[in-house]
Structure formats: structure tokens, C-alpha cells
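[[Encoded backbone]]
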Amino acid sequence: MPHAKRLGWGYRAFTSSKDPTMPLTFAAPSCDATPLYALTSEGVEDWIATQPDATQAWIAATDFKAALGSVALLPGTDGEISAAVVGLGSDKARARSRFALAASAKSLPEGSYTLASDLAGLDPETEALGWLLAGYAFDRYAKASGAKAQLVCPAGVDAQKVEAIAAGEALTRDLINTPASDMGPDELEAASCDLATRFEADFTVTKGEDLLEQNFPMIHAVGRASPRAPRLIDMRWGSSGPTLTLVGKGVCFDTGGLNLKPGASMGLMKKDMGGAATVLGLAHMIMALNLPLRLRVLIPAVENSVSGDAFRPGDILNSRKGLTVEINNTDAEGRLVLADALALASEENPDQIISMATLTGAARVAVGPDLSPFYTDDDAIASALSAAADAVADPVWRMPFWEPYEKMIEPGIADLDNAPKGGFAGSITAALFLRRFAQGQSYTHFDIYGWNPSAAPGRPKGGVGMGARAVLNALPKILNI
């Protein structure tokens, strides 16, 4: 695509640090790798009792208790590090951390490490992924670095799979972390194009006034006030297998429109394209792992701006599906652009449609920033997602498509209301609104946050993928692949 060349976005710019020597990959197996012992607070004393007297004395001198993230370096006779011991913490501490092993990664000296102990019942694949993600840093505008200690892939773990997932997550994080000055609809298109090019996917874009000609009136209405033209990004990959369509909200910045947000609420709106970033990261995982399915990714990419051409409260918009929508708040724009994309997605009757969006503050009030609320009418899909999420430490929480609230999104003057008054059940009414445009389809919606407000092991403060790994792990059951 011309935009990708003009803007100069390379795929690598969105997958790892600018330092090409420190990608999110495992260290090559080597006899020089430092042995790494990972111990729990409950098991550290038993391990110490099996060690030579010199090691016992050294551990006692350092007062190592295997607290989560703690490190003890064991000296060799030549003055080099002979081994490293890291703490996995107590049962309580591990229950509060997604990636217990990664808690120590940044405290270890640069080098290669190989696990010399088991992980006390923790999942090796999840812990290995956490270690890779601890190496992530967003360093485009200032110096920053993640952990420089590299791990040899643990025995029994599929290195290629974990590296593909880490790269997808890094892509999501980089896209969200990039400010709107450098991540508008043009740049989001370019990043999508780079991803499509890498995996030889088909790629088309409907842009500007062509949106009206191609019957995407709500995408056009939301984005028309910005000098950065609105568009619908459409990527297709795979030639056989069940069909999966991912739809991601790509509002590259949200001022709130004429219902202008207060400054405090506008500060993080660079992340309002977090749904698009997350589905692109998930698409990377799916394509890199060559899953046997046919994938389509739809991203309505817009900037919700203020100008004389902005859509207004009280306007009634037509939609691709033919439903009319009364605008009672221009700050409820994400569901409008998603609605046209969902209507397009449903026209092909895919086996599963999944939308991801940083859609409502109500979802954050309900479950906070760590959980990914999702909606589905299919109990089997809900069970598959919940089980998959637990297995890969990517927590989700099912929310209800509560039928009695349907009347809240029916204003009378139009078919639908984009912002029901009263403030009750804001995430549910938004999900019900979206479901109208995927009617008759197997449809799952994620109302994610896309931002980690405080640093945690393998999860630095900033943009973060939510729900993608749970979906990836659940796809074999959802699509019977």
C-alpha cells in the first residue's frame, strides 16, 4: 500500500525493541547458560537442605526466602556466577501474579539462563511467555529497556508458539503506546498493511467519501470531522477451514466529539484504538501459527474530532444494516463504527464473529482493568473461553446479553439509541446495541480496557493486550479445528 511506504512503518517497528539484538525470543540452548533454580517460599528450605555446605552458607548470608521476584546469585570458584536462584513467592503471592517467574527477570544480569528446577506446579508455557514479555520495552521516544536476561526455552514448551504469541502481544502494546500524533488512521492502516504483507494476506481499504458510496455511513459520520480521513481496513488470510472474523475498534483518538470529554478523561484516548491493536496482535498469532482457518480482520479506523462538520447530538444516522440510530452522545462513537463493520462481517455468515473494543467506562467500573468482560449467547463458547483464559493466565469474565434492557436502546424516534440516558448497565446496553448488527450470527464481544495502569511482572505500565491469548487458546473448541 502507498501509505505503508510513505510513512515508513516497518513490521519490526511494532514487534520488538529498536535494538535488533534483543528481540522477544528464547536464548539458544548452550552449555554456557547459567542454571536457574525457581523456588517457592514453601519449598526453599527443602531445596537448601540438599545443597553443598558452601551454598547453604551463602544462601543464609543473603537471607534469601524465595519471596516473589527475589534473586540470589551463587558464586563459582572462578568468580563467575555459577547459578541463580529466584523466588516464586508464597501461594498467595503466586495467586496474585500472572507471571511469577518473570518477576525476577529484570533483576538478573544480562545473559542466558536455563531452568534447573521444576516450576512448582506452574504452567511452563505461561511462565516462559511471561519471561519473554518481561523483555518488552516501549523505547520509541526515550530510552527504555526490559529484562536483558534471556531464558532457554523450557523442556516440553513449543518455542515457536510462545515466540509468536509474544510478538503478537508486542505488536498490540506498541500500537497502543504510540500517541495519536504518530498513530492516526493512516498509520494504523500502514501497520495493518505491514502485517498483511508479512503473511501474504489480502488487504483492501475503503476510505473517505468512498465510505458513503460503499454504504458505511456511520464510519464516515464519526470520522468526517477530522482532516485524517476515516476508513475501513479489511484483511483476509487463509484458504480453507472454518471462518473467523475479528472486528476491532480503531478510534485513533477520541475527543468525545461535540460532547467534548473533560481533560482528565481525554488523557488516555490514544488507547481508544486498543480493540484494533488487540485484533491485529491476535491476527499475528493466528497467522504465525498457521492455524487451519480462514481469517478476516475488519478495522474501522477514525479520529473522533471537533469541527463544523462533526456529527451532532440529536442527529439520526443511517447504518449499513438499514437501522437508524439516534445520537444522544457523540462520545458513544465506538459502537457506531463497529456497527457498520459488524453488518459487513455478518453478510458472509462466518462461523464466528469476535469484536474487541475499548468501548465503555462502565466495564472498567464493573471489573477493573485486569479482567476482560465478554458477551456471548452461546454457553459452549463461554465455557471454552473461560477455561482457555484460566489455562493461559489471560482472565476473562462473562457478562450477560440481558434481554430486558433491550428497551433501553430503543428511543422511539429511531430504531436505536447510541447512548441511553440514566447511566445504568452501560456495558450491557452497548453490547446489546452491537448485537443488533450481528443478528443471526455466532457473535462474541469483548469490552476491554487495553491499558495496564501499574507495572507487574511481564506487564509494564502502558498498552496491553486483553483477551487475545484466551481467544487463541479457545479457538480449537470454538471452531472445531
